[in-house]
Amino acid sequence: MRQARAMAQAATPSSTVDPWERFGWLMGAIWLVFLAFPIIALATGEAPTVWRVLGIVGILTFAAVYLRCFIVISGVDTWDQVVRTGLRHLAVMALIALALTPLLGVGSLSHLPYIVALAMFSLPLTWAFATAVGAVLLCIIVPLAVGSLTEDWYFILIVSLVALSTGLVRIVEQRGHVHRAAQAELALAAERDRVARDVHDVLGHSLTVVTVKAELAERLIETDPVRAREELAQIQALSRVALAEIRATVSGLRVASLADEVAAADAALTDAGIEADLPEDLSDVDPRHRVLTAWVLREAVTNVVRHSGATRCTVELGPGRLVVADDGRGAVGRREGNGLRGIRERVAAAGGTITLTPGPTGGTVLEVSLD
């Protein structure tokens, strides 16, 4: 229970607190009302007043120890702390119940349901069930020994019901914590994948364009110094944009714009010496798919510039369709890289499909279909 909670807390914001962890002790406090019966029995008994007062104080101390343990374990962070706290409090409660036996007689068994309940929420399950079994056996053996089993049989029923109900709650709670911890782990893994995929897409595109412009500037530095300086200035601007995009990606604020990506694709293809045929009207694209389409377009164009060796690239956009075709060396049958894998993951997460086929005259046609 606590092991799972500790894992869940490590993966979730500290401000998110399970109300059961803070106020669950109230559920244990409700049942303390039944200690009124042994208190009434003592108050109306025939024992000397001093012993009756001491007995009532003992019962109230028992209740305070029981309640304090629930409050303490609701605030600790590790399962080992819970077990140590539970064992200490249970030992004190058992000693108090034993000390009250000369005053209460068989009625001292009324403390066992509280011991069983606390054991269920503060001890390992095997220890807790062993405690419950021992408590039920006491409820059988003690009345048998004093010859009052026919009158005090209800202790067996009460302790058994408490053990069963608290045991079920403990098991359900433990599985709930495990489930939430697993969900937190999955969410963390998904976030890692998102950051890795986005960083790859952002850096892959930006560094590809920077490389193309750097090669162009190197060729122009002697023949056209002015143009070379312009390319170097653009490299500097692209580096700043890439840095800002990386920061936004890591913080989860990065959102691709389809219009911006079409313009960036035009610039990247042109700088690489690839003739670009891009759509001017983007109104046909379904607004639900614009961000995804922008991400896919960015990575697809980056792959064309980096790997295809193409002289021409055509992009088609529709309500639920994106096609990127080039006349390069072709990618079908080659090992799939991180970029294409990232596209597949994004499209699959949106319920779409992706196909990669040879072009009619060579090259590669990447088609994405979205519902």
Automatic annotation (TrEMBL):
By its UniProt entry, which Gene3D superfamilies does this protein fall under? Answer: 1.20.5.1930, Histidine kinase-like ATPase, C-terminal domain
Q: Does the record's keyword annotation contain Isomerase?
A: no
GO cellular component assignments: membrane
Q: Which domain of life is it from?
A: Bacteria
Q: Which InterPro entries match?
A: HATPase_C_sf (IPR036890), Sensor_HK_TwoCompSys (IPR050482), Sig_transdc_His_kin_sub3_dim/P (IPR011712)
Q: Among its keywords, does the record have rRNA-binding?
A: no
Q: Name one GO molecular function term.
A: phosphorelay sensor kinase activity
Pfam families reported for this sequence: HisKA_3
Q: List keywords of the entry alphabetically.
A: Kinase, Membrane, Transferase, Transmembrane, Transmembrane helix, Two-component regulatory system
- Show where the Signal transduction histidine kinase subgroup 3 dimerisation and phosphoacceptor domain sits: 191-255
Entry-linked SUPFAM superfamilies? ATPase domain of HSP90 chaperone/DNA topoisomerase II/histidine kinase
List membrane-spanning regions.
23-43, 50-74, 86-107, 114-147, 153-172
Q: Which PANTHER family match?
A: NITRATE/NITRITE SENSOR PROTEIN NARX-RELATED (PTHR24421), SENSOR HISTIDINE KINASE DESK (PTHR24421:SF63)
How is this protein named in the record? Answer: Sensor histidine kinase
**What phylogenetic lineage does the species belong to?**
Bacteria, Bacillati, Actinomycetota, Actinomycetes, Micrococcales
